Amino acid sequence: MSTNHPYITIKSRVANSSRAHTQPQVRRTDSIASKKGKVYLVGSGPGDPDLLTLKAYKLLQRAEVVLHDSLVSQEILSLVNNSALLVDVGKRASHHSKHQSEINDLLVDHGSSNRCVVRLKGGDPFVYGRGGEELQALVAANIAFEVVPGITAASGCASYAGIPLTHRDYSQTVMFITAQCKNSEENLNWPSIARQNQTLVVYMGLLKNEVLAERLIKYGRAPDTAVAVIENGTTNSQRVITGTLRTLSDLVEKHRVISPALIIVGEVVSLASTLDWFTDNKLIEHTNNSDIFYELEEAV
Ligand SMILES: C[S@@+](CC[C@H](N)C(=O)[O-])C[C@H]1O[C@@H](n2cnc3c(N)ncnc32)[C@H](O)[C@@H]1O
Q1: Of 148, 175, 207, which residue constitutes the final position of a domain?
Q2: Closest residue CA from atom 5 of ligand 1
Q3: Last residue of a domain, one of 114, 148, 182
């Protein structure tokens, strides 16, 4: 690979950067500022900066304002050009730093300013990212926009855990669900969610893991169906813990799994023991045997 390839540039900038992102920076006035303003809704992928698209990288290089979520890592933020204004609009499950309406207002304010504005989100903006709601606010304010997709957590985490989301022998369909939704879980279509030969990927499912396992078993999934919990997927602190639906809540509790974490349910999870490839990440197989658990805990 030649040394002027953009990939190489990304690597060296990450390694050298120690830039703090919380303080607004003085804005540079140059040719970019003279271009007509637009808001770019950009997905930053699940964590590993090398999973950014080239289009996302180029936009971070020319952005004048970047409004980002808390899930976007420092490594990725260090790729933003030094003169851009960085605004953290992040929110986490119970402690929102900004309400969605405030974020929409900020987007409209910056989008009206004739600047190149990047709205940077974890994963893909259209997968549990409220990207649609933000674009609707821009449409209402007559502000131009583009969408740059990112690798969603399901795809990134599964790949880095060695879990193919589909496999001809095990799973023909994949379903993404979230445990954090406006409607109660009572209203979800559980018979369809619990279908056999289907891989289920659960976003934001940690806090509701017990009800999830209970419903899936009640609606037909076998209690010994394989389950993986992937914490901080695709990053250097990734942990992949496997178990079964029956042991899911035990697994989350005993391994003290923290957010962000993704739950994958389905027979394909069993392939992780042979397809796990991500350097330095040992698959943790959770069993109910407490002696084995202590050995594994020491290895974490
Ligand atoms: C608000 S949703 C955003 C999803 C994002 N738009 C996407 O496409 O991946 C946040 C949830 O995504 C999942 N997630 C995102 N990044 C993750 C990662 N690196 N490892 C594990 N789960 C992740 C977790 O379930 C987390 O609670």
Answers
A1: 148
A2: 123
A3: 148
pLDDT at 287: 81
pTM, full prediction: 0.84
Inform me whether the pLDDT recorded for 253 exceeds 90: yes
pLDDT tens-place string over residues 5-51 = 444 344 333 333 344 444 444 444 344 444 457 999 999 999 999 99
Q: Is 131 in the pocket of ligand 1 (CB under 6 A)?
A: no
Q: Does residue 231 contact residue 258 with C-beta atoms inside 8 Å?
A: yes
Domain count, the chain: 2
Tell me, rounded to whole angstroms, the distance of Cα 234 from its chain centroid. 10
Nearest ligand 1 atom to alpha carbon 125: 6
91 is annotated as an active-site residue: yes
Question: Facing residues of 123 across strands?
Answer: 45
Q: In testing the pocket of ligand 1, which one of 94, 119, 134, 204 has its CB within 8 Å of the most ligand atoms?
A: 204
149 lines ligand 1 (CB under 6 A): no
Residue 1 lies in a domain: no
Q: Which domain holds residue 66?
A: 6-148
CA-to-CA distance for 233 and 239, rounded, in angstroms? Answer: 7
Residue 295 above 70 pLDDT? no
Listed residue (118, 69, 131) closest to 97, CA to CA: 69
Same domain, 203 and 294: yes
CA-to-CA distance for 220 and 13, rounded, in angstroms?
50
Is 58 a catalytic site residue?
Answer: no
- Domain-located, residue 44: yes
The whole-number pLDDT of residue 96 equals: 54
